[in-house]
């Protein structure tokens, strides 16, 4: 219902389970509780339940249309759900 939700996944709808970003980002901070060095079981469980797919906005490059036009690929991916070129697959209800 939100007009801001422009991140509809289009095109390829394959979900490859092996695709997933790490639960902690490269700085070592948990994506769920935002604590450094988190080993919280509930965060791990949330993470294990998620399914990820390649971001439709950037095609996994993290740059807008980076996969379509390398010359124009100077802008960072505009999807706020994009983590390292992947987005969480929302087609799976929990
Ligand atoms: Zn955590
Ligand atoms: Zn992206």
By secondary-structure content and strand pairing, the structural class works out as: little secondary structure
Ligands in the structure? zinc ion
Distance between the termini: 20 Å
Shape: elongated
Note the beta-strand portion.
Answer: 5-15%
Count of runs of 4 or more consecutive helical residues: 1
Task: Please state the CA-atom Rg, rounded to the nearest Å.
Answer: 14 Å
Number of strands: 2
Mean pLDDT across every amino acid position: 78
Strand order of the largest sheet: 1-2
The SSE order reads HEE
Number of domains: 2
Sum up the structure in keywords.
little secondary structure; 2 domains; binds zinc ion; elongated; 94 residues; disordered N terminus; two-stranded antiparallel ribbon
At a glance:
With 94 residues, this protein is largely without helices or strands. It is built from one helix and two strands, in the order αββ. 10% of the residues lie in helices and 6% in strands.
